[in-house]
Amino acid sequence: MVERTAGVEPPPARRGRDTLPLYAVAAVVTVLVLAPLAAPGYVLLYDMVFVPRQPLTWDLVAPAQSLPRAVPMDALVSLVTQLVPGWLVQRLVLGGAVLLAAVGAGRLVPTDRRAVRLLAAVAYAWTPYLAERLLIGQWGLLLAYAALPWLVRAALDLRAGRDGALARVVLAAAPAAITPTGGLIAFGTVLLLVSDRAHPRRSALALAGVGMLNAPWVIAALVTGAGGSSDPAGVAAFVARSENWAGPLVALAGTGGIWSAQATPASRAAPLVPLATLVLLILAGVGVGLLRRRLPPGAAVRLGALAGIGCLLAAFGVLPGGDAALRWAVVHLPGAGLLRDGQKFLAPYALLLVVCAALGAERLVARVDREVAGVVLVGLLLLPVAVMPDLAFGGAGRLRPVSYPADWQAVAEWVAGEPGEILALPLSAYRAYSWNPGRVVLDPAPRYLPGTVLTDDTLLVGDVAVAGENPRLREVRRVLAEGRPVSATGVRWVVVQHQLPSEVDPAILRDLQVVHEGPFLTLYRNQAVLPPPAPPGHRSWAAVMALGAALLVVLAAAVSALHRRPTAW
């Protein structure tokens, strides 16, 4: 736990009085952001895809022909949705992300002033970073963002030698590690905050535990047939983007700057936004001294280093020579494709900025009388909402739940009865469905249909086509480009999706048998492909074992935390 201003723990009654308002404000912010999710259905927006019951397939545990960008996230969703419907899982993860982000930031601030904690809570749950990652559908990264203040708090506790801190480090890192990016942020946080030459065993255990949480995606990356290189065209496509007249670096300074204009709230283009960023930076500068004095020696410097590394990764593509260096790296260094969208590593900076700004506000109001101080704090608390009002109500209505047409369940039942490889046509990574109006979403087929689903992995960003890594898709694309029928690709099933901007040439569907024809989906069987899919090899089992080991680590940490066993150090 972070060192308190007075240096002693408050009595339980005082802690309750401090905690209840924090949770209440966090709940209000959560409801305000996610209000549209009170309606039934599924929010399908860009990378956010939830289905009623996600099948547990080998490709979701360890993709055989693509990079493990959603490992172990997809496998965990598949496991949970065997017991809990997907619509409820979606609400739990989104609501939990916003709520825990706010509460975690409020609890992390080293202060005894309740209003300062509330200021940090609202500011952290209303950043452009959270808004943009929510509107692009990257809910796994939102969980990492929400877990970060809890992880920092646990890491500082562990470095101070407090009982039970190791278990809390692992538990706080677990939600972050469901995606590769979140796992790297968690590992970097523990590495910088916990490492201590005076207590090497403590540091080694923490790093080993968080390392095991990252094992599922690391092993999946080692065994996939996709290789480790990425298309260098993605460097320019995913570089940090200017949101207004001030340029990309100022956008990053305000925790924004995501590459996608469609995922950016319209209010970020307002001419006064850079001035609000300047106010926030000034407040943070004023609060740095308080943070340094109230945290354990050296902790503020380590937090600054963590935030600085995140800023460097976020801005690297727009710095002189950064573009060329990244283009070389994604081709020659396996896994460097993770660095193309560098803005996602800005989470530690966002946390430090909010905490310092809250302390800066405390220092500012300490110089004025109590009534004026209250007005100033309320104004600062509402400033993030005033600057970016279109995060409210699901990003001004962008998070609207819809229902899947009945075609999807019918096709899933057909495919489940006769397992085999499935090709989704027309070839496109993202879909704009008439039943999901005004929004684009990643093709749900791989998560809705049991089996290996082949969907196009080429990503169009404006006029730039960023090639995917799946060699099987390249083979399918080559067959179709030669004018040969789909039956020559060797897939067992073909799902043609209708009412989309592009259509499928009926000529390529010859020799296929129609088994289901609906208004939104038509399912074809390729009778020339009869053998069942090959059983998974030892490589897939290696990924399963890594996932099992990670779950055992989390379970052990949970049991230890529940028993609150004192650590040996």
Strand order of the largest sheet: 4-1-7-9-8
- Share of helix, binned: 40-55%
Morphology call: globular
Largest sheet: 5 strands, mixed
Task: Report the oligomer.
Answer: single chain
The CA-CA distance between the termini, in Å, is 16 Å
Total helices: the number is: 22
Unreliable spans are 1-9
Q: Please identify the structural class as seen in this structure.
A: mainly alpha
Q: Please indicate the percent range of residues in DSSP E strands (runs of 2 or more).
A: 5-15%
- Output mean pLDDT: 92
| Overall number of strands | 9
Cα-based radius of gyration, to the nearest Å:
24 Å
Would you give an account of this structure?
This protein is mainly alpha-helical. It is 54% helix and 5% strand. The protein has 22 helices and 9 strands. The strands form 3 sheets. Strands 4-1-7-9-8 form a 5-stranded mixed beta sheet, with helices on one face. β5 (459-461) and β6 form a beta hairpin. α13 crosses α16 (347-365) and α14 (299-315) packs across α16 (347-365). It is globular. The two termini are 16 Å apart.
SSE inventory with pairings:
Blueprint: H1 12-34, H2 58-61, H3 73-80, H4 86-108, H5 114-124, H6 128-135, H7 139-159, H8 165-176, H9 180-194, H10 200-223, H11 233-237, H12 248-253, H13 273-294, H14 299-315, H15 322-332, H16 347-365, H17 370-387, H18 392-397, H19 406-417, E1 422-425, E2 430-431, E3 441-442, H20 445-448, E4 453-454, E5 459-461, E6 464-466, H21 471-481, E7 493-497, E8 513-517, E9 521-525, H22 538-563
Parallel strand pairs: 1-4, 1-7
Antiparallel strand pairs: 2-3, 5-6, 7-9, 8-9
Helix pairs in contact: 1-4, 1-5, 4-5, 4-7, 5-16, 5-17, 7-8, 7-9, 8-9, 8-10, 8-22, 9-10, 9-14, 10-22, 13-16, 14-16, 16-17
